[in-house]
Design brief:
two-stranded antiparallel ribbon, single chain, mainly alpha
Length: 341
């Protein structure tokens, strides 16, 4: 999968967006296992093309999606020692000093979306904050990453064991419930982003951190939901996760990768018991059923939802299903390097 994608997309052709960053982070995980220099060369070629010597990228970082690239900057800083990447990561970190928040401190999804928290945003920012704090001996950033997750969870928790997609504290959006401010549905990938963010932040959070117990509780809450809503026929999860019998519902590959990645980490780290191992095994097998290889060795992964905003159930069900979209490529590499060993 990594080789196919690199052949189809030269490094300099990738941008600074979150889907490109997700693939690059997955590629780095492949490099960590294989030590194949081609993968690190690809990352470095991207970095050289996108980051100037002073750390600037031309991005104002006015949305959380754009901040996922900060993780790649941290990887390149550690792998190459080139100061441009530390400077680039610091630019994102320093942007947060003036970045708008909700009234209770949550970083909003986009500076154009006043008062809105999207579950997606947890993955875009919080693991970067935690890793930045570790890399630069800045414990306040690690603490902030955990506090952000708990703030989001307090608003987005859904009684099914999963999460609503989004919350609008102003109750202004067409999708926002006038009483709760919540969006109407559980969208699968939004929950997958949040779960993956939580286990990744826990990897950086000190054992004695006061937020650690609560975050492990979040993982356990989601794990119960993942187990409850896994499709017994395919091992995957549906686009509208808690409405499996809805007309036109379909199992989506990127969220299935992220759910399984989260559960595999949780079992490995001891956040949940080994009784979840069969859920991981079924999820991994279900994702692999969507992966194929052609005679020339090139790979394809199908049934990936394209980029998605907040909407109602019909909106999610009607999202195009594509092959080799970077949402699915990156999520698959995360999963395969975690559960496929």
């Amino acid at each position: 999968m990594a080789d196919t994608t690199m052949a189809a997309h030269p490094a300099a052709s990738l941008g600074l967006g979150y889907t490109d960053a997700l693939f690059l982070l997955g590629l780095h995980r492949v490099h960590q296992r294989t030590h194949d220099p081609r993968y690190l060369d690809y990352l470095e070629a991207w970095g050289t093309a996108k980051v100037k010597p002073d750390g600037s990228t031309g991005n104002p970082y006015n949305d959380l999606d754009s901040m996922l690239a900060g993780n790649v900057f941290l990887v390149l800083a550690a792998e190459t020692g080139d100061p441009r990447y530390s400077l680039a990561a610091r630019r994102i970190h320093d942007r947060l000093a003036t970045y708008p928040r909700t009234s209770d401190g949550g970083f909003i999804h986009n500076t154009a979306f006043t008062g809105q928290l999207w579950a997606d945003g947890a993955f875009m920012l919080d693991p970067f904050l935690a890793r930045y704090g570790t890399a630069f001996a800045d414990p306040a950033s690690v603490t902030e990453s955990a506090e952000q997750l708990l703030t989001y969870f307090a608003h987005l928790r859904h009684p099914s064991g999963l999460l609503y997609h989004a919350y609008d504290e102003r109750r202004k959006q067409s999708w926002a419930d006038p009483v709760t401010g919540l969006s109407p549905d559980v969208w699968c990938r939004a929950v997958g982003w949040f779960g993956a963010a939580t286990v990744d932040v826990l990897d950086s959070l000190p054992a004695a951190a006061p937020q650690r117990h609560a975050l492990v509780g979040v993982v356990r809450y989601l794990a119960q939901g993942f187990r409850r809503w896994q499709d017994p026929a395919t091992g995957r999860w549906f686009q509208l996760t808690v409405k499996p019998t809805a007309v036109d519902n379909w199992t989506e590959t990127s969220c299935s990768s992220l759910y399984t990645y989260t559960l595999s980490q949780a079992v490995q780290r001891g956040y949940v018991g080994k009784e979840y191992r069969p859920v991981v095994d079924r999820g991994y097998a279900g994702v692999l059923a969507k992966v194929s290889a052609a005679a020339d060795g090139s790979t394809a992964i199908t049934d990936i939802s394209v980029g998605t905003n907040v909407g109602n159930g019909r909106y999610y069900l009607d999202r195009p299903r594509v092959t080799n979209d970077f949402h699915g490529l990156g999520a698959f590499l995360y999963l395969n390097e975690q559960a496929g060993r």
